[in-house]
Design goal:
Rossmann fold; 7 helices; globular; SAM-dependent_MTases_sf
């Protein structure tokens, strides 16, 4: 059954808290307000960085904010050409992929826990909902394609849990396209926070960064099979399909759009010198 993506606003979902295995340790949780507060939301409103992820040891990862806020580039378009059916962009950020698909008449919904990200997506004419991927998502179990680009395989700091959840959201045989980092040996679960050049810092949260071999290992354990992998524009991607059928489909919601998933979107693997 097709997923209908509606055009009416839905009230913002409450902030979602979920245990963060591995990265944060037992009993800790992810606070989605991390991505709704400055400096991330301020940077999204202006469309300008620099913005970084910072580990406790001072290591910095430059976030490609200007690229996220620009139009979809050739590497993005290669991803979009592979999409099938209705598309769910998980951690849609400022909405370039949602906008590009929408302009082509493709049914697409972005979800993000950042109110600023959702607002920017809607301003581009896309449809987006302030929602964590681990909450109830409209059309759950019926999406044809789901996207985890710009590093969003790191959401929650637990790749296995995220991959399991993605299988629940997709229709049986649905397609998951995930972006990985260029370092093939990387399989990292850490706590980070968002910071800007002025030193303003958000709340620490768990994150994961995976090279393609690591993602394939996690995917195999979570019941996925790899159907393709490619590189474009200096970025790496993997396409996966679930080996199992989905019996947890949620009814589509025709009133599932904007209002205000977590999604600063750490992408690539371009570390900046320790501060």
């Amino acid at each position: 059954m097709a997923v209908r993506v509606g055009r009416q606003a839905e009230a913002a979902a409450p902030a979602h808290r979920r245990p963060a295995a591995d990265a944060a340790g037992p009993g800790t949780s992810v606070d989605d307000t991390t991505w709704s507060a400055d400096p991330y939301s301020r940077a999204l409103r202006t469309g300008r960085g620099p913005l970084f992820l910072r580990r406790a040891d001072g290591w910095l990862l430059l976030l490609e904010l200007e690229r996220w806020c620009a139009d979809a580039d050739e590497a993005d378009l290669e991803v979009l050409r592979r999409c099938e059916g209705a598309v769910l962009d998980v951690g849609c950020g400022p909405g370039r992929l949602v906008a590009a698909l929408n302009a082509r008449g493709w049914p697409v919904l972005g979800i993000d826990v950042s109110e600023a990200a959702v607002a920017r997506t809607v301003a581009l004419g896309g449809q987006a909902l302030r929602r964590s991927v681990f909450e109830s998502v409209p059309g759950g179990g019926r999406w044809g394609t789901a996207l985890l680009v710009d590093g969003n395989i790191g959401i929650g700091g637990d790749p296995h849990a995220l991959l399991t959840r993605m299988a629940e959201l997709l229709a049986p045989g649905g397609l998951l396209i995930a972006e990985t980092v260029g370092d093939p040996d990387l399989d990292e679960r850490v706590r980070v926070h968002v910071t800007d050049a002025r030193g303003s810092a958000g709340t620490p949260f768990p994150w994961a960064r995976l090279g393609t071999p690591a993602l394939l290992r996690h995917a195999d354990r979570a019941g996925w099979r790899a159907v393709d992998q490619w590189a474009a524009g200096g970025r790496c991607f993997v396409a996966l399909r679930s080996r199992s059928t989905n019996s947890t489909a949620e009814p589509p919601n025709s009133a599932a759009v904007s209002s205000s998933q977590r999604a600063a979107k750490p992408s690539g693997d371009r570390p900046v010198a320790r501060a």
